[in-house]
UniProtKB/TrEMBL annotation:
InterPro entries: ATP_PFK, ATP_PFK_prok-type, Phosphofructokinase_CS, Phosphofructokinase_dom, PKF_sf. SUPFAM superfamilies: Phosphofructokinase (SSF53784). The keyword Ribonucleoprotein does not apply. Pathway: Carbohydrate degradation; glycolysis; D-glyceraldehyde 3-phosphate and glycerone phosphate from D-glucose: step 3/4. One of its GO terms (cellular component) is 6-phosphofructokinase complex. Keywords: Allosteric enzyme, ATP-binding, Cytoplasm, Glycolysis, Kinase, Magnesium, Metal-binding, Nucleotide-binding, Transferase. One of its GO terms (molecular function) is AMP binding. This is 6-phosphofructokinase. It comes from the Bacteria. Its cofactor is Mg(2+).
């Protein structure tokens, strides 16, 4: 087993579940430290139940994680295969996101053992599962921050731009904006269709003020969706449109603290599912959950296919909660 890529709250709960389920089914677990780096450098340790019993309340990962660009090379996958065979291992559980799963698929070209992915990323951007481990916690942290920003924004009738993680996917942005009642979202998916201009943004800010009266306006900006991010955008609004505006960058705070209950439970289910998939002979699949059913999704599908943003949440945010148009149309039956 290894944890790879950006850590996500609940990874410890997932690795705990892998170890406990493995012991239950008389299997032994070896954990590579620092993700694929540890697999290449033979940095590993044996994990028993006693090592993992009380780790599910902590974020991060006790076996460490890393990004490992060199794993893309053929020689790296071949070396990893040799190391796995030398240890007599029959299966590898990879807890991580799309980059980690690409690495797992790459390894499968050179190693005959079973490979099972467990979706661990705050971005929630893996196809085939209703949620990824860490997403719920990240949304809760962003929501909490947005609530606090609202207090000060409202006191001074200010515009705030809160930058959240998710450079390729707007799930954290949309959910936290919805949960905290933000007036505007700038998300990767929306930017692709129709990039927002400062002029359009200012028009919306003024429109909201005209309809709702003077007050605060809180915007959720996904990272990398504006040149220079929240700081540059707020400076632009102040300088060009004389609009008092403040930026707030949440960054890696979204990956820390106590994992939300739903992440601990999801991680526990998926960790056990990974071991049961190994027993069933599965390989090159991700352990996922769909409509409360445990599923096995081909690893390649997890990044080649995409879960779209919830259209109904977008509609509610854009058309109902935040006034864009003068007249409202009746909902279709
Ligand atoms: O993929 C998870 C994630 O937290 C993204 O939301 C973010 O863009 C990225 O990792 C940050 O990566 P790093 O921790 O390497 O800076």
């Amino acid at each position: 087993m290894l944890t790879s890529g950006g850590d996500a709250p609940g990874m410890n709960a997932a690795l705990r579940a892998v170890v406990l389920a493995a012991e239950h089914y008389d299997m032994e677990v070896i954990a590579f430290r620092h993700g694929y780096e540890g697999l290449l450098d033979n940095e590993y340790l044996s994990l028993k139940a006693a090592d993992v019993l009380h780790v599910l309340q902590y974020s991060g990962t006790i076996i460490k994680s890393a990004r490992c660009p060199r794993f893309k090379e053929v020689a790296a996958a071949q070396l990893a295969a040799e190391n796995l065979d030398a240890l007599g291992l029959s299966a590898l559980v990879v807890i991580g996101g799309d980059g980690s799963f690409r690495g797992a698929e790459h390894l499968s070209q050179y190693w005959q053992g079973q490979i099972i992915g467990v979706p661990g990323t705050i971005d929630n951007d893996l196809y085939g599962t209703d949620a990824t481990i860490g997403y719920a916690t990240a949304v809760a942290i962003a929501m909490d921050a947005l609530d606090k920003i609202r207090d000060t924004a409202d006191a001074m009738d200010r515009v705030f731009i809160v930058e959240v993680m998710g450079r390729h996917a707007g799930f954290i942005g949309l959910s936290s904006a919805m949960a905290a009642g933000a007036e505007r979202m700038i998300l990767p998916e929306l930017q692709r269709d129709k990039p927002l201009t400062v002029a359009a943004l200012v028009k919306h800010i003024k429109r909201v003020e005209a309809v709702r009266g003077p007050g605060s306006y809180v915007m959720v900006l996904s990272e990398h969706q504006w040149p220079g991010g929240a700081v540059a955008l707020s400076e632009q609004l102040e300088a060009e449109f004389d609009m008092p505006c403040r930026p707030c960058l949440l960054g890696h705070i979204q990956r820390g603290g106590a994992p939300a209950p739903s992440d601990r439970i999801l991680a526990s289910q998926l960790g056990v599912h990974a071991i049961e998939l190994i027993l069933q002979g599965a390989t090159r699949v991700m352990a996922g959950i769909k409509a409360n059913q445990m599923v096995a999704v081909p690893l390649v599908d997890t990044w080649t296919k995409k879960n779209p943003l919830d259209e109904n949440l977008l509609r509610i945010q854009h058309e109902i909660f935040n006034p864009v148009k003068k007249s409202a149309s009746k909902p279709s039956q």
